[in-house]
Amino acid sequence: MTGWKPFPQLWHWQNQQTTLILIRHTTRSPLDEDGDLARFCLFVRPTIPTVLESTIAMNVLVVGGAGYIGSHAVRLLLDAGHTVTVYDNLSRGHAASVPDGMLVQGELSDRAKVVQTLRDKKIDAVMHFAAFALVNESVNDPALYYRNNVIDAVELLDAMREADVKKIVFSSTTATYGEPDTVPIPETTPQNPINPYGFTKMVFEHALADYAAAYGFGYAALRYFNAAGARPDGSIGEDHDPETHLIPIVLQVALGQRDAITIFGDDYATEDGTCVRDYIHVDDLGAAHLLALDKIELGKGLCVNLGTGRGTSVREIIEACREVTGHPIPEKMGPRRAGDPSELIADARMAKERLGWQPKYMDVKSIVQTAWKWHQAHPNGYAK
Ligand SMILES: NC(=O)c1ccc[n+]([C@@H]2O[C@H](COP(=O)([O-])OP(=O)(O)OC[C@H]3O[C@@H](n4cnc5c(N)ncnc54)[C@H](O)[C@@H]3O)[C@@H](O)[C@H]2O)c1
Q: Are 210 and 340 members of one domain?
């Protein structure tokens, strides 16, 4: 059949569930100029979210992948065709949140084990979620935070140097900004953390910048606003102990695990007097990680906010939870908490410009719906 030339033509149609690809494959015999033969092939496949399409398949080590946000990133990495290894000491995570056969249980401080894992699994890039993240705990026991979030995290970087793995995506936080004067908060806002948690995360951002300059690391530090929601099929979700995040706590009232939700202050300078935050769906965070993975350049770093750019008040969250659950969710008033700024909303433009990232969950009710599906199916989290 030599001499036959293919002239493919392609039509593409997709919605959120299904992608149709129609290929017109015209072949022409060099012996017969009029003899075009048109054939059509129709391919039907599930739609892969556009944000994930450009990634090149990699071997990714997800450090802290048994935790809330890490376990969601793991699913998105797998969905996009990457090979994943989770490295976690299970101090705050759940083995049940990790797909079978992917967990290596170990400490970040165990350099030999991390190096071995990086080499054995031929890791191309690391995602780092393995930090402690409770503000009050960090105030009461800063040693725990400096050790885990700085010292052990730098051990990870040195293990990466030893194994010659130089790409890393890091879960940073809006807590590195402290109480900024400007809202929405752009990345140019000075980082003035007001607690050891925020400080340790900022210090690690500096370590990344120095490792990029000196050793050629490439990194993205993604400064999350308020992570919320769960995988839409309800298979994995948020299970912290203690739980300090608003949406799961409000949903505990709907589940009958608490009598009421306490609102800490309704005299802030906001529309309804309660604090306003920027809630970002956990899968939108994960999607940004995948995009960042693709964009990382060795020797360079990128620090971007991940938020929707929309603020939602505590009262609006409670109302959304009432609508979604159909439960009255009684509330009671409490005093303001120290160090609670009235409004924290992301200026999210840079993530769109630099990563091509656009959150899918722009209204808080859709985020609550995913969280409710998880909590209803797993009222005790991962515990049987
Ligand atoms: N949850 C949020 O709203 C939020 C907001 C901003 C930033 N972040 C950041 O995102 C990251 C993940 O948050 P999360 O809510 O998923 O936390 P998480 O506690 O659910 O998950 C952290 C995981 O890391 C593991 N881990 C911790 N220290 C480790 C160590 N030394 N060695 C090995 N494994 C270790 C824990 O066992 C756990 O599985 C954190 O770094 C946090 O600072 C979270």
A: yes
Residue 281 has pLDDT above 70, yes or no: yes
Question: Is 382 labeled as catalytic in the residue annotation?
Answer: no
Domains of the chain: total: 2
The DSSP result for 204-259, as a single string, is HHHHHHHHHHHH--EEEEEEE-EEE---TTSSS----SS---HHHHHHHHHTTSSS
- pLDDT tens readout for residues 190-228: 999 999 999 999 999 999 999 999 999 999 999 999 999
- Mean pLDDT, to the nearest integer, of 308-318? 97
CA distance between the termini of the chain: 62
Dist. CA 318–CA 250, nearest whole Å: 7
Q: 328 and 274 share a domain?
A: yes
d(CA 170, CA 182): 24
Task: Tell whether ligand 1 has an atom less than 6 A from the beta carbon of residue 90.
Answer: yes
CA of 237 to the centre of ligand 1 (A): 13
Angle between the N-to-C axes of helices 246-254 and 364-377, in degrees from 0 to 180, rounded to the nearest 10? 60
- Pocket of ligand 1 contains residue 224 by CB under 6 Å: yes
What range does the domain containing 42 cover?
5-46
Verify whether ligand 1 is closer than 6 Å to residue 152 (CB atom): yes
- Which two tokens mark 143? 């040693």
The rounded percent of the chain whose pLDDT value lies above 70 is: 86
CA-to-CA distance for 270 and 313, rounded, in angstroms? 8
Averaged pLDDT score across all residues of the chain? 90
Q: Are residues 234 and 212 in the same domain?
A: yes
Q: Is 305 in the pocket of ligand 1 (CB under 6 A)?
A: no
Ligand 1, atom 10: nearest CA belongs to which residue?
171
